[in-house]
Amino acid sequence: MLTIHTADLVVPGDGRAPLPGGAVLVEGRRIAAVEPYEDLVAAHPTARVRRWPGRITPGLLHPHGPELLERSYHPDPREDLGAEPLTGEALSALAMTDARWGASARRGVQRLLAQGTVAVIGPLQRPTVIDAVHRSGLTIQDGSTEAAPPPLLPDADATFAIFSGTECVATVIRGRLLHRRR
User: Fold this and answer.
1) How do residues 79-96 score in pLDDT, each as one tens digit?
2) CB neighbourhood size of 142 (10 A)
3) pTM over 0.85
4) Which fold has domain 2-59+152-180?
5) Are 37 and 6 in contact (CB under 8 A)?
6) How crowded is the C-beta side of 79, counted as CA atoms within 13 Å?
């Protein structure tokens, strides 16, 4: 299925000029085109259109994957532990099992997606955390190399974020809408 994502501005990255009134045509998991909205909708009149406020950009790369996902506990809202991640002594006081680490990582990943994050810098060590990250669609990048989110180019993975001001309104990874502001 073809989907056209359009916003006030498309910022493709990779040094390419921003495109006012632009759009990203997504076919499955890949970007098929990045062009003015009018051109894409004329060429693909049956494509689904998603209109977003703000700008479409390459997603964010979070530089602290291990700290956020393996050295912090993201409480379940049903627990009486508050809403913020627990670290240090508060984390040490918990009985952490592999299942609990995995559940915490899933909640942490949801926070990342809500910020427009599409990748984290690793390495990650806990198999349940790695599994949660991979299942979400986020990628883990090696911290020893120059890492950057992929630019919005034809035939690249359809992975990007949409921001209105500083707030992330949606995150798309490999063509899947994984976060949408309510």
Assistant:
1) 999 999 999 999 999 999
2) 9
3) yes
4) Urease, subunit C; domain 1 (2.30.40)
5) yes
6) 14
